[in-house]
């Protein structure tokens, strides 16, 4: 159901395959701790727009979706729809914000 995730870092290409194993409570706690640790390591802002924080929470949400999908594919698909809708909404707000800034600059100048 999930395709492998591919990315490049420091000139090296990585591929991460999805595990079909169910997550345990301990793994959920580990995910929570890992998220907090990454937020601190990457110095994500606590408030306001922060691309680092957005990326980390997105990765965490994708992992939660993976875990739910393994146990109940229907719920997983619903979560995917929710995630995609949230992403589209955020993109719309970002577009509006950028247009507002341009308009504001034109008014000022």
Entry keywords:
109 residues; extended; 3 helices; mainly alpha
- What's the number of structural domains? 1
Strand content: 5-15%
Structure summary, number of beta strands: 2
Average pLDDT for all residues: 88
Q: Which secondary-structure class do the elements indicate?
A: mainly alpha
Low-confidence stretches: none
Shape: extended
Q: Give the strand order, joined by hyphens, for the main sheet.
A: 1-2
Q: Which assembly state applies to the chains in this document? A: single chain
Order of helices and strands: EEHHH
**What is the radius of gyration computed over CA atoms, rounded to a whole number of angstroms?**
18 Å
Number of helices: 3
Give a quick account of the main beta sheet: strands, pairing sense, barrel closure.
2 strands, antiparallel
Query: Termini, distance in Å?
Result: 52 Å
In which range does the helix fraction lie? 55-70%
Task: Please specify the SSE layout and strand pairing.
Elements: E1 5-9, E2 12-16, H1 25-41, H2 51-71, H3 73-108
Antiparallel strand pairs: 1-2
Helix pairs in contact: 1-2, 2-3
Brief digest:
This protein is mainly α.
What would you note in describing this structure?
The protein is mainly alpha-helical. It has one domain. The chain contains 3 helices and 2 strands. The chain has a two-stranded antiparallel sheet with strand order 1-2.
């Amino acid at each position: 159901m999930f395709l492998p995730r591919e990315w490049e870092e420091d000139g090296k290409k990585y591929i991460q395959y999805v595990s079909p194993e169910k997550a345990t409570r301990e793994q959920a706690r580990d995910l929570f701790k890992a998220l907090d640790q990454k937020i601190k390591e990457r110095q994500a802002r606590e408030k306001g727009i922060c691309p680092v924080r957005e990326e980390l929470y997105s990765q965490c949400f994708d992992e939660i979706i993976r875990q739910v999908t393994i146990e109940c594919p229907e719920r997983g698909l619903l979560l995917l729809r929710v995630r995609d809708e949230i992403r589209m909404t955020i993109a719309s707000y970002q577009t509006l914000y950028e247009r507002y800034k341009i308009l504001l600059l034109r008014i000022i100048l």
